[in-house]
């Protein structure tokens, strides 16, 4: 059995019901919108985010979920989908998970409006049911995601990212949404403030590890295949490169910055940068940091009694680190 199916086992029924509720939450009187949202729903990924909501709700709610849990998962998914649609416009990206993006099929104007529509559906789903505590969780996440993107753009222009700034960028850009899913799951079953915060931190740690793993894919290895160098081409300062820069001599530092700034489209030069980062311990350092986040997340789970939900969450934490793509 595939690992994702094993993770989903204790919440299989909930996920099936969630998919039906989620499809209904997108319905509009405008047929063009229904065509587009139908396209979106049928091209969803592994659905890790709603899985986090349900698993955490069951972990903290004695194995129970309620209507608030379903609404919380739907709000997360609606608002997350809205941000992806807008991201594809911002990045001028024509593909999403191997399929054409909405802006590639229907152009930017429609994509922006669809993103706005999904955002408003998420907000109204919470407001109409008085779930203001859940709405607050996701609203904070959206604010942080926007700040993280803008911070990265600001820093990419100067290539002066310190390790601390890098952690802040990935915390806001990636980890904050997974943290929101976990906080949402606990909040939906009326867990204590302390437990909601503990679950938020758990999600944040997984998100940090997840992003560092993504950064490592750029450098490739025996398990992953060829290095891609995409981050270098896009002038993204990731942890392996930041570490290599910080420990390099002045001369090497100048060469590295010049390579990323002015020769990032030169395949040979990008390969040389990748080789330099590898030779100077960049990958080992990033792996060590990633594993520290993983261990801290598992330590939070260890305080809970054994259950199928705890087991699935442990699988999830390890899957984030061990995945091949």
Overview of this protein structure:
75% of the residues lie in helices and 1% in strands. It is mainly alpha-helical and 325 residues long. The protein has a single domain, classed as Farnesyl Diphosphate Synthase. The protein has a two-stranded antiparallel ribbon with strand order 1-2. Strand 1 (95-96) and strand 2 (99-100) form a beta hairpin. It starts with a helix and ends with a helix.
Topology:
Blueprint: H1 3-8, H2 12-25, H3 31-41, H4 48-60, H5 67-90, E1 95-96, E2 99-100, H6 102-128, H7 132-156, H8 163-188, H9 193-217, H10 230-233, H11 239-246, H12 250-262, H13 267-279, H14 282-302, H15 308-322
Antiparallel strand pairs: 1-2
- Number of folding domains? 1
Low-pLDDT segments, ≥5 res:
none
How would a textbook summarize the main sheet?
A: 2 strands, antiparallel
Q: Based on helices, strands and strand pairing, what is the structural class?
A: mainly alpha
The quaternary state of the protein chains shown equals single chain
Name of the CATH homologous superfamily = Farnesyl Diphosphate Synthase
Number of strands: 2
Order of helices and strands: HHHHHEEHHHHHHHHHH
